[in-house]
Structures are given as C-alpha cells and as structure tokens.
Design a protein that fits this description.
heterodimer, A: alpha+beta, 6 helices, 12% strand, B: 115 residues, mainly alpha, 4 helices, elongated
Chain lengths: 155, 115
Amino acid sequence: MFLFLLALWLVFNGRVTVETVLLGLLFAAAIFAFMCRFMDYSIGKEKKVLRLVPLVVHYFFVLLVEIVKSTVTACRFIVSPTLPHDPLLCKFSTPLATEAARVTLANSITLTPGTITVSLDDGVYTVHCLDKSMAEGIESSRFVQLLLRMEEVTR
Amino acid sequence: METIRFILGTLFILAGLIIFIIEVFGNFRFGYVLNRMQAAAIGDSFGIVLCLIGTMLYFGWSVACLKLLFVEIFLWFSSPVSSHLVAKLEAETNEDLAKEVKMKTIGKEDDPCKP
C-alpha cells in the first residue's frame, strides 16, 4: 500500500525529481501511518499482500481473456437476428471464505459482459446470465480457482 | 515508429467505437431491463478499455499513459458496483420476474429459487 501510494503520488505529480520523491515518501508514510492507526491496515498484512502480486497479475490477465471471450459471445447475441437468447437467473455458492475474495468474484462476474451479479448473501451468488450457455461451469470457473489459491497464500 | 503507433491507436479506438455501436444497438434490441444491462456491460467493460488503450498508444510512454491506466482500473472497480445495484433493485422490486427469466439453483437441479 505504501508503494502504491508513492507510485500514485509520482504519477499525479508528473515529474520524478529528488524533491518530489522525498515529499512523496513523507506523505505516503503519513497516510500509511494513518491507515495503520485507524483503518485496520498493518505492515504484517502488507507483507502477505505483497506475496499475492504474481497471482493478482495472473488474475488480471485471466479476467481480460474472459472479458474478450464473453464480449464476442454477447455481441453475437446482439447482432444476429435469428440466434435466440435464453435469460437465466441462477443461484450458486462457492467455497470462498473471505469477504474480499467473494466481492472480487462478484465484481469479476459483473465485469464480464453477459453476466451480472444480482445479489451476494453469505457466499450465495445470484447471477443473471444473458443465455444459459454462459451459466455453465460458473461455480467452478478459473476465477474461483485463482481466488482459492490467493486465499491459501494469505492464510 | 510514430506512424505505427498512430495506426495502432486508431485501430484500437475504432474497435472500441464498433463495440459501443453494438452496445447501443443491443440496448434497443433487447426488451427487458436485465438483458439491456448485459448489452450495456459490453461497452462499460471492454469498449472503454479499447478506447483508453488507443489513447494510451497515442501518448506513448508518459505520465498521461499511466494516468489513463489508473482511470481504467478505477472504472473497472466502480462500474460493476453500479450495475449490481441497478440489477438488485430490478430483481427485488419486479413481481413478474419469473415471466422474464428462468430461475435455477446450480447444484440442486429442478429447484426454482427466488432472488
């Protein structure tokens, strides 16, 4: 988080000079201290998060590929005059335990065109799909596997 | 190099625009709210990314490019939240939901569920 804050500062600043880097270090440290004190962040947790970085990058690329694939599918449903779509509202649950992983999965499902998470209660997802073919295998997708691995790493 | 970047950027932006056109078309083609939202989600998640990648290619390696990356990340975090809220509202207030969509619980077959 500290590194992220520093990067954010440098990007918004637009120049990398000794002055901006020093000021950035100061402000990032101040904000991080505030977060540790009042917002349930801590250096130990940050170390765990740092180990997640490769998995997060992997997850991002999987998400991108899924979005491209389902965009093509959804565009086919829109453009084709004959292909009928069959909307479906399905409920399923996943073995994900932490709140963060559940929310990430819900966001990813909504982000992929053709599926929208309608509600999420205690790990039970209600997902609206444009066609029932999109709901196949949704409860054991690659997102879920990756998130399970992330949970193991941070445990 | 400059020309290649310009052509690539233009191609990305054009692809993004085509996706937006399909999205708008889908918005009018589908009759029901939740289906329309699916069409809208196409442009939200992928069309905007293509447009931003095109703009990033125009800028090249610079601070503006990184700022656009942050815009993209922010959009990807915020747009699912808003579409989720609209979808939830529709699913919880529509009494004739069963007419519009089929319902199914995965894991337990033949068990129609209520949202």
